[in-house]
Amino acid sequence: MIYAQILAGGKGTRMGNVPMPKQFLALADKPILIHTIEKFCLEPRFDAILVVCPADWLSHTQDLITKYVTDSRVKVVAGGSERNATLMKGIRYLQETFGRHADDVVVTHDAVRPFVTQRIISENIDAVLQHPAVDTVVPAIDTIVQGEADAISAIPVRSSMYQGQTPQSFNVKALVDAYATLTDEQKASLSDSCKICLLAGQPVTMVRGENLNFKITTPYDLRVASALIEKRA
Predict the structure, then answer these.
(1) So where does CTP get bound (predicted)?
(2) C-alpha to C-alpha distances, 18 to 12, 13, 25, 51, nearest whole angstrom
(3) Domain range enclosing 49
(4) CATH code assigned at 173
(5) Would you list which residues are annotated within the binding site?
């Protein structure tokens, strides 16, 4: 089966003094989360579209989906304490609800990347049906500088540097098996779900992203997103 999992479990601390997690903030006429869900509802190959949100906002999320979304494939569950715990909790729900199959795949996406395109989603599905893990990336435009304690320690060759986006897509069994092999120390170091597969020795295939597929993280990002929506309207 082919699943989508929209990760809406973040608190949005970098958004500043706002009354709710950033995924629930308004973007034009509806919440950011709803814009993102609607993009995934356009893909007919998904058997289920799972939204994983903070436990304290479960009822609010369900109310929003009832108000704005008519697609019966969309389900809501509470997430975990951090990103990868949320991802695994969503996978457990999918397996308990729909069963376990060796060829199950899941396309995971940040709830606050509402400008994801149908091309990116479709190519993630195509790639993950052939490979255990897929990452959406764009080539780095600026030089990437690595440093610690205010000193540069390395400047990698830019031509081999990419910026990671989402979706990130996985064969479910391969991801669960990889996560089970990690030590607690390795799990604590995870800042990215594809790193689960890399640490377990699994290959990760790349799909081309888009610069407009950016993550709404700060008030500036929200202003840019609002301007883009207004221009399209």
Answers:
(1) 7-10, 80-86
(2) 9, 9, 8, 22
(3) 2-232
(4) 3.90.550.10
(5) 7-10, 80-86
